[in-house]
Amino acid sequence: MTTGNMDPTTVSDCFNRSLESTINFVKNVAESAWGNDTPCDEWNVRDVVNHIVYENVWMVALFNGQTIEEVGDEFEGDLVGDDPAGVYIRTAREVQVVLAEPDAMSRTCQISSGPVSGAEYAKQLFLDTLIHGWDIAVGSKQDATLDDYLVDMCTPLAQAIADNDGYRQVFKAATAGTSSSNRQTHLLALLGRDG
Q: Which single residue of 34, 45, 55, 167 has CA 20 to 30 Å from 80?
């Protein structure tokens, strides 16, 4: 993916807003709901939160100049312990601190596919954070309505994934909902979710 029509400031703003959206869902997960199934096959609510915590800590490390080799297996395994909501909120706030730094979007980050700009990396994380927030909301039986602006900004990124076999590997095939006039349903369908 490339940033396309999203300028770096917009990318940073969208990522920030998706973090806030997902914080809201995570902090409202009932204690009884952490083990609930989610739209992510084989992941319960707690597992999805652990996954996005993993993305948060990697983001901070790579934006701060560390390489994959330097990080090694430091972030493998259970990152959330007995406080998944607290750990997610703390790591999301750490991401927001990095995003607030003036040069964040112009930094070079060494991700698994090679070096990319901070804006490119943040764009990928925006999509993942927003969509996994929805997964958590659905799994924990909350109102899973996403912000219309974030849906609109995320849809071209999801379309690029749906149109590219390489990106498709980490998502399910698009569903029939891609023909829906409901913007959120359309977005989710591009990523193999029935919304």
A: 167
